[in-house]
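Request: Have a read of the protein record below and say how the chain folds.
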Amino acid sequence: MQNTEDIIVSSHEVKLPSADVVTADNLWQFVLAITSSKFTQQQLQSSLKTFSMNTIMRILAYLKYLNYLKEVREEETQGGKKTKVQYFIVNKDQPLVNDIQYAVKAGGREDEAKSKWHQLIREHDLSKIIINEFFSSEVTKTKIDLENFLKARKELSGKQPSYYQYGVSFILKLLGQAGLLSVQGNNIILTKTGNVSKESNTREIVQVEAKRDEDTQQISNDVYKVTIIGPDLNTTLDIIEEFDIEIVNKFLEKIKNKLSVHTPKGASNENSKPSN
């Protein structure tokens, strides 16, 4: 009889890769390679021969942090001796993980799997911490801001400068591929889709359009789009899930703050005065 010991990893914190071999592209490559619901590192290495065991270990550790995998240690008898064997299990508690696995195994549905993978990243605590704590009420930050933010995190303290520098690069690539961020020079811009560019210095206008995306082949897939145009802003955001509304609210909060600064006191009531 097997004795199973679950290894629980909390994701309510920022975790950066332990080495630069863990990249956004490598994570996706591993997702495509994992077709078994339960496996060992050695079994996975047979399909990923270009990766060393050390690299595989580090990438699997980060997939655990992203809640894609779980780790268990099962007591087995090998050669007449009892030993604990490390297994990795696909996290079937996550509906998105199940969707990704189904698409990967089906074959020819890599785009669908990648879309679900990006959604998994957007809904992870890492993305929520970056949006809610790093950006806070802002929509534009710098790479230096992000590096300082990471250095200030208790769970990341005491590391070498190169650790934080690579962490910045990794987060920008991972969240950028998921459609949450765009980078222009040293600036990091919070955006779901579309480009953010500098426009003429006019009052910011919010155009909200709810329309059906007739081009999609998915059934019952209504896509709401929010377009925001104004000074330093020109972006269109797709509203597919509730999490996207949080991003829109941050843009609106920025506009509200700018309007409150540039609007003289009493100006809003000027036209409401009764005439004699």
Notes: Confidence is low (pLDDT under 50) at residues 1-10, 193-221, 268-272. The first helix runs from residue 24 to 33. The CA atoms of residues 50 and 56 lie 10 Å apart.
